[in-house]
Each structure stands twice: as C-alpha cells, then as structure tokens.
Write a structure and sequence with these properties.
mainly alpha; 10 helices
C-alpha cells in the first residue's frame, strides 16, 4: 500500500495535464521575450543617449573646422532683413545688456543725437566705425552688403522713433555696391572709408585642434579689430600692447573674451555663434603670437 502512494503521479486530472503542458511552453517563451527586450531595448537604451551625446560632442568640436558652405556664384543673392542682421551681428553691442556707450535697441534717449545725422550719416559712421564700434559692426563686405547694413540701421533707428524708409533693394543680378565707399549726405564730399586689412589672407584650416580653430576664428572675426588696433584693441603680434593683458592671466583673458569689456570689446567679439572653447582657442592663438 505504501509503495503505491510513493509512486503515485502528481497529475491526477486531464485539466492538470493541460495546464502543465501550456506552462511548459508559455514560461520559456516569456523568458525569451524578456531577455530579448533587455538586450535590444533596455541595455541599448541606456547607452544610446550617451552615444548620441558623444556623437554630438564630436560634431560640435569639428564643426568650426569641417563645416564649409559651398556658395554658387550664379545663385541669386538672398538678403538679410534688418532684424535678422541686427540679431546676427548688432545685438551683441546694441542689445541688452550690450556695451557702455552703444545706443540700445529702442532707447530713444540714446539714439536721439545720432538720429540727427540722418540715415546716410549713420550709415557712414557704421561703415567707418566709430569709438568702440569696429568698421561695419564687425562684419565683412563679402558677407554683408551695404544694402543689408542700411536695413539693419533703419531697423534700429526706427525702434527709437525714427521714420526712415526701407532702402531700395539692388536689382536682381546687379553687382553689389563697393563696400568701401559710403554714401554721404547731399552736398558733402564722400570720404573714403578705410577698412583694416587682414594680417594674412584667410586660408582653409588643414588640421583640427585648438590652434586651427583659434586661427580660423581670428581670421573670421577677431582680426576686424585686432589687426589694426581698432578702439584700443591690442594689435595681433604686438608684444608691448599684449603684455599688460597677458599679465592678468589667461583666465581673465578668457572671461573678457566671453563677456566683453567696458573699454569697448563686445561680448564674444560679435562672434555670437562661437562656443566658449572656440573663443579660448582664439585667445590662445593671439596670445601665442604676442609672446
């Protein structure tokens, strides 16, 4: 009797048999599905953000060197609006907080005496540069036309109470007006406008790295002031002019490059799209040339 109980099967009914068979299939399949989800979903998901971030970081680092916009010389010129150029180049000085001495956007009191010059008088000052303002607001003639510069001036002046008319767009296909000849008020002789020449012709940066990025940013933006010493900016390669700045330490130079200085340097030197790392590289490049 006892032997019969010892060998008795745990499955006593057909229902129990069916349940055991179903579980023998469902449980392994469920485990397999969970394992696959863990490997392809969870584990990948944990590393994916890091991988994307790493990819974006690498892209950001090489962007100033590798990015190159191919322009079709036969393509029609697309002109910036006054607002677009203001945000791109002028806001660093004329926006908030801007730099001391620059009339701020919408400030009628600050713009009042300047509006008396008229549109062409303001344009002539913008092209030549005045005080802490570099020629053409730090832009280059090949990048920003006189027409676009006029539009930006109209946009800023009208925000402060002027009623200047939008300048007439150049005819389609017409060559751009020479950027070195500023329009003068009626009856006045047009004075030649001298734009500081670059120290050296800009050349493509062959290799990545801090030195290449710094040189590229200098040639693109910084040389507008530092090539000729505009508004007291220490000239490139001038050891005597750079000595008191270098004596303050690199940390202070980096900070000044990002925030600007009360003596006239606008925040980021008007290179608002440059990263802090790019600005540091440009500072290193200029300091290295002055040692």
């Amino acid at each position: 009797m006892s032997d019969d109980h010892q060998h008795e099967s745990p499955i006593k009914t057909p229902k129990q048999l069916i349940t055991i068979i179903v579980l023998s299939f469902v449980v392994p399949i469920a485990l397999i599905v969970l394992l696959v989800n863990y490997v392809t979903g969870g584990k990948h998901g944990e590393h994916a953000p890091g991988a994307v971030a790493q990819s974006e970081t690498v892209g950001d680092r090489i962007k100033p060197v590798s990015a190159y916009n191919l322009k079709d010389p036969n393509a029609p010129k697309v002109y910036l609006t006054g607002e677009a150029l203001f945000k791109q180049a002028c806001a660093a000085c004329h926006g908030a907080p801007g730099i001391p001495g620059s009339p701020k956007f919408g400030d009628k009191e600050g713009w009042g005496p300047r509006l008396a010059q008229g549109l062409e008088g303001l344009f002539a000052s913008a092209v030549k540069g005045k005080g802490a303002m570099p020629p053409r607001g730090g832009t280059l003639p090949d990048d920003v036309s006189d027409y676009e510069l006029h539009r930006a001036i109209v946009y800023m002046a009208n925000s402060a109470g002027a009623s200047f008319q939008e300048p007439v767009a150049p005819p389609a296909g017409a060559p751009a007006a020479p950027a070195t000849a500023a329009a003068a008020p009626a009856g006045a002789a047009a004075a030649p406008v001298v734009i500081p020449p670059p120290v050296a012709a800009a050349a493509p940066v062959a290799a990545a790295g801090g030195a290449g990025v710094g040189k590229a940013l200098y040639e693109k933006t910084c040389q507008v002031c530092h090539a000729a010493g505009v508004a007291g900016a220490p000239k490139f390669g001038d050891k005597a002019a750079w000595a008191p700045h270098i004596a303050k330490g690199m940390a202070e130079l980096y900070k000044s490059a990002v925030t600007g200085t009360p003596k006239g340097m606008p925040p980021k030197g008007t290179a608002m799209d440059a990263s802090d790392a790019d600005l540091k590289a440009a500072v290193d490049y200029m300091v290295g040339a002055a040692k």
